[in-house]
Amino acid sequence: MIQNPFLLLFFLLAVECVILRLNSRAETKFLFKFLPAVFWIFFIPMLASTFGWIYPKAPIYDQIIHLVLPVCLILLLIPVDLGAIWKLGRPSLLMMSAGALGVMAGTPLALFIFKNHLPADAWSGFGALAGSWIGGSSNMIAVKEAVRAREDLFAALVFVDVLVVYLWMGFLMTCSAHQHSLDRWNGSDRRVLSDLAQRIEKQKRDHPLRVTWKSIILVVGFALVFAQASGFAASFIPEIENGLSSFAWLIITASLIGLLLSLTPARRLESYGASKAGDFLILYVLTAIGAQADLTHMQNIGILILTACFILIIHILFLGAAWRMTKVPFFLLATASQANLGGVVSGPLMAEVYQPGFAAVGLLMAILGNVVGTYLGILVSYFNRVVMM
User: Fold this and answer.
1) Which range marks the domain in which residue 223 is found?
2) pTM of the predicted protein model
């Protein structure tokens, strides 16, 4: 069993680099057709921990999470173009909001219905899942750490997340062939798509990437300074007993600082690899969380899947109601749903499947979810806790 902290650091880094390398090669990309790279980056350290190859209780994992996570959040939020999101258009923002509200309403309702069959601390795990289903993986990890969700519960919900979201994604992709029929039945006004196309053209800017190892180091160093400032600011905020811990305040503060920096010239750091560095580091945090988990405690997986499916149904009902009332194209329903549930990978992909050339719409919608996902996920966690009392 590996217990040396330096060997553990190297092992986690090696897992991430190998998976990302395989995912980038055309000849091995088929390995990730059904289960994405992010799943394997989490799952392999979890397997190693379960079989006793690495020590699951090593302090180095928490040190990675507490040091790196605030840096990730700042790096991922610095490039956000809030102005472009706002210009995305009222129909797009409305559908994205409907999808998020569906997750926010469905999660505590599902826990209330199934609470007698769920673990007592399921409120925290499903709060993290809500963060993911409103924003993305970075939000899921941030909420998980903020509400102190148990590692094995979180591990089970990562599996549930992938299973449920990808099954729903497959169904939505099938519906793309029938979008015109669905829009005729709904009486949808497809002129909205023309308006979106014009906005996409206006939003295109020339931002040539100038990413080098030196630029990455400088960008990460910049984010690290503000992460430390976030920790300093959070230290003055009192903890809420049985509520927000000091680390939860750190996550909230770091996210806020990242958003504030996005309104300054610091947003230009995206050209030097800010989001690329953030993506890499958030996956490294995920390996550390996976290493703390244990597959032997996944006996409640059936009820977790059932609960997640109930949340998905409420999410669909909210989106369906908004689609019927606003008469927007089905394209926006499908894209908003995947921008919520799947984040910055699935949102653009779904948009491109429905309307080639519209990936930017899915990306901007997913970024909006990423901006609010952590805050709303923490809020949902406490709604969950109330209904499970």
Assistant:
1) 81-198+210-277+300-387
2) 0.80
